[in-house]
Amino acid sequence: MSHGGLVRKSERKFIVFTSLVGLLTLTSALLLALAPAPLTADASNSLFAIDAPESLDEIFANTKAPVRAGGWKYIYVHQSKTPTGNASTLGRHTNGMPDHFLIGNGDGAFDGEIQIGQRWRNQHGALPPAGADKIDPACVSVCVVGDFDASLPTPTQMRRLSQLVNALQSRLGIPAEHVLLATQSTGTSATAGKYFPATSFREGLLP
C-alpha cells in the first residue's frame, strides 16, 4: 500500500474515533439533562418513572433507622394546595419537609416522582400540614402536589399514589379504614381537595 493510502486510512480511523467520542459525549449530556434534579437534604431519595410496584421496596431498604412497622398505624393523604412544588420548596421547617413522602405533578418534580423525606428516612413522625392542628405520631403522611380544589391530580400521580399506599399498607399492616383522606374542602392543604378522586382511590386500597 502506498504512503498516501496509509495516510488516508489513518485519517479515516481518526475521523471515526473522533465521531465516536463526540457521540458518546452527546449521549452523556442528554442523559444528564433528562435525569432528575440532584436531591436536596429534604429529599433523601427519589423514585422516578418506575412503574413496577416491587420497585417501592427501596422505601423500606434505605432508611437511617429501621422501619418501625408496629409503630405506624395510619396513612394520611393530603394535597399541597399549590400548583407546583417538591420536597425542597415545600419544606417549611429547618429539618425538612413536614411529610414522609411527596408525589410530584410535573412542575417542580417529575410527574409521579416519589420524593422521600428526612422524616421517613429517620423514622420520625410527620408535622401537620397547613390548616391542621395536629397529626397522629403513628401516621405516615403523603403529600400530593397540586391544588385539588381547582383541578384534578394527574393520572400518573394517582397511579403512583396507589402503588405507594398499597406498599405501605402491605409492609406495615395498615388496613383500608386507617387510610385517612379528608375530602371536604376547607381552603387549606389539610384536605385532599374537592376534585381529588376519593372513590376510585379507595377502591384500589388493600383490605
SSE layout and pairings?
Blueprint (H helix, E strand, L loop, with lengths): L2 H32 L8 E5 L10 H4 L12 E6 L21 E3 L10 E4 H4 L17 E6 L10 H18 L6 E2 L17 H6 L4
Parallel strand pairs: 2-5, 2-6, 3-5
Antiparallel strand pairs: 1-4, 3-4
Characterize the structure shown.
By secondary structure, the chain is an alpha/beta fold. It is built from 5 helices and 6 strands. Strands 1-4-3-5-2-6 form a 6-stranded mixed sheet. It is globular and about 40 Å long. Mean pLDDT is 80; it is low at 20-44.
What does this entry show, briefly?
The chain is an alpha/beta fold and 207 residues long. Helix content is 31%, strand content 13%. The chain has a 6-stranded mixed beta sheet.
List keywords for this structure.
about 30% helix, about 210 residues, alpha/beta, 5 helices, six-stranded mixed beta sheet
Could you tell me the strand content as a percent range? 5-15%
How many angstroms does the end-to-end distance come to?
Answer: 79 Å
Give the strand order, joined by hyphens, for the main sheet.
1-4-3-5-2-6
Count of DSSP H/I helices: 5
Shape: globular
Low-confidence stretches: 20-44
Provide the helix percentage.
Answer: 25-40%
The profile of the biggest β sheet is:
6 strands, mixed
Strands, total number: 6
Average pLDDT number: 80
Radius of gyration: 23 Å
Order of helices and strands: HEHEEEHEHEH
